[in-house]
């Protein structure tokens, strides 16, 4: 799995010249950079331009969080968003768009990363730089999801806005599934998520 986050060697950029602010995650002690970090190094963009969500991503995340707040039992579950950090182990830190955790398993709020994997993780698009690596989008999705599943997460949902598809990886299934936006996606208890319905209710086209 180490190969997943190794930097493209022929890029000419040495890891010790890349500012820490451009690190999105750590896998097995090695940095995973934000998508587009090379443009920042080249002086073509500012760090904020690659670290911030796009208009589509931010709108969709807001819709999902609003739906969750009005749907699930918030006395039983806690919702976190805004690229919450999760420390799985030494050298393994992940970024998460939306995390749903059982309150009884949730540590006291602090200024540190989460230490306990959420019950449900929802990701909107890929923010990590994978260009030039020996894997594609689907490989990254599966490997990051497997890290979460191995740490106790029950459901990982990846929403890809460009292809309007959703990848669902669960701890009770041997393989991940690809579903369409208009399909109901199981979250937890008796709650489901339907991306198309959310967008239609708000009159948003993606």
From TrEMBL:
UniProtKB keywords: Endonuclease, Hydrolase, Nuclease
Record GO terms (molecular function): endonuclease activity
The protein, known as: Uma2 family endonuclease
Organism: Dyadobacter psychrotolerans
């Amino acid at each position: 799995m180490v190969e997943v986050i190794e930097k493209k060697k022929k890029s000419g950029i040495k890891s010790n010249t890349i500012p820490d602010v451009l690190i999105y995650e750590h896998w097995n002690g090695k940095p995973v950079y934000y998508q587009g970090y090379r443009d920042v190094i080249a002086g073509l963009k500012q760090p904020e331009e690659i670290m911030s969500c796009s208009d589509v991503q931010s709108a969709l995340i807001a819709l999902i969080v609003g739906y969750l707040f009005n749907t699930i039992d918030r006395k039983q579950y806690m919702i976190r968003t805004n690229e919450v950090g999760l420390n799985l182990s030494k050298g393994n830190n992940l970024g998460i768009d939306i995390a749903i955790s059982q309150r009884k398993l949730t540590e006291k709020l602090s200024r540190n990363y989460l230490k306990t994997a959420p019950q449900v993780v929802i990701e909107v698009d890929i923010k990590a730089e994978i260009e030039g690596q020996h894997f594609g989008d689907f490989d990254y999705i599966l490997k990051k999801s497997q890290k979460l599943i191995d740490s106790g997460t029950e459901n990982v949902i990846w929403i890809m806005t460009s292809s309007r598809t959703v990848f669902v990886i669960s701890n009770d299934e041997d393989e991940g599934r690809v579903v369409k936006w208009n399909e109901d996606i199981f979250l937890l208890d008796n709650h489901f998520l339907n991306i198309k319905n959310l967008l239609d209710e708000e009159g948003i086209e993606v």
